[in-house]
Each structure stands twice: as structure tokens, then as C-alpha cells.
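One chain is below:
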Amino acid sequence: MTGNAVDRPSVVNPNVVHIWTKVDLGSHASGPVALGDCDLGVSTVTGEGIAGLLDLLKVKANEAAGGAGDVLPTRLRHVQLLQEAASHIAGALRGEKQGLELRSDDLRRAAASVGRISGAVDVEDLLDVIFSQFCIGK
């Protein structure tokens, strides 16, 4: 550390965002870190900097998610399971008047649908798919 400012490392992690909080309190140049050493400043009291923070988070999320082509399903079975999962999630969101146990069951079903894509597969279900899609012994 030199003076009142923090020496940043020569190699900065692009995934780290330095945020000055409580900018509404003033005295940004005092303390071990100055506002100039941060990527942005925010105040939850006045709302200053919140829009900039949200914009920055959107950019970082888009960078982390990659291109849309990276996540498109290539098999009809995957598309159907994703549609099934989306339907269960929508049901859980619509079910405001239902008990939590019914809404949680919708979420469990959605997770099971996604699990069939990601590898958490029931063997019987897998055999049903294989035998329904392929002609064996004819």
C-alpha cells in the first residue's frame, strides 16, 4: 500500500468488480481505499450508481454465459425435456394460491426433466427412450 490508496495487482482478475458502497456519506478520498480505486460507487440510500451496477452485472452475466449457440439443444429429446421443465416452472410460478408442497412438486419435476439431460437419468426411462426411437430386431 502506498499512501491512502490500495495498490492493485499488476494482473487484475476480470471477474472481480471493486464497488465503493455508501457513496452518499461522502469523504471518498479517505480511508484505505479511495473511490478512484473502485470500478463504481453505489448508495442504497439515494440509489446513486445502482443503474450502473445493474448494467455492469448484465454485461458480466452475458460474458459468462457465452453465445446463445453454446446452449442450444441439438436433440429433439433435449428440446422436449426443456419444454417440460419450463412448463413445470411456469406452473410453480402460476400456483400462488396453491400450497408450497404443490409448487415445490412442480419444481421437483422441472429439476427431474433437466436432470435427464445433464446425466441424472432413471435407467427405466432411458431404456424406454432407446426402445421407442430405434427399431431393434426387425
About this structure: Confidence is low (pLDDT under 50) at residues 1-5. Strands lie at 19-20, 40-41.
